[in-house]
Write the structure tokens for this entry.
Amino acid sequence: GENVEQHPSTLSVQEGDSAVIKCTYSDSASNYFPWYKQELGKRPQLIIDIRSNVGEKKDQRIAVTLNKTAKHFSLHITETQPEDSAVYFCAASKRRGSSYKLIFGSGTRLLVRP
Amino acid sequence: DAGVTQSPTHLIKTRGQQVTLRCSPKSGHDTVSWYQQALGQGPQFIFQYYEEEERQRGNFPDRFSGHQFPNYSSELNVNALLLGDSALYLCASSGIEWTGGYGYTFGSGTRLTVV
């Protein structure tokens, strides 16, 4: 069945350091890979996404890389700040138009120490 | 422009009871998906509605049912509640944005506690 594995489950970094979260997906037909940030008691918020025809995407301090052959993708956060502390979820989907379901990883709790 | 709105925000129910959760999608979105997020877990896909029909369904029992109305709003119904149904229920809407992208926006969720 469809599955997304995410590692690590917790990550603690010093402010200013980089953080990397890795995910592996099982369905080779997946073509859309979003990353969500969820703060305590709040909704998941999309922070960056990538489609299968792109290998890397950057948005300021955040970047995502995709290796379709290995079926894994990673989130990179540089120059981390305390406000980056949250739970991060990766997801994979076979996307067609507005109709698609997201298969989520189990989440990574990121703690940025001041 | 309102985002995805869900009601109620919190709910406490007794085992065996039935519950209805409501969702209004973001303006311009026509597809509504429901997810269950247990504490400390990632969201799990329940089902998706488009044009008032269930289009996709995850691995959830028939106790979970839904509906979509002509104005694209949606309801999630859960019958015969179990303690294990306690979770945050998230509604997400999606559609083809005018920019050509594909938005997928979550609501703040309904926290359901079954006692």
Observations:
- Chain B touches chain A at residues 29-31, 33, 35, 40-45, 48, 50, 55-56, 58, 90, 94-96, 102, 104-109 (CB under 8 Å).
- The two ends of chain B are 37 Å apart (CA to CA).
- DSSP finds no helices and eleven strands in chain B.
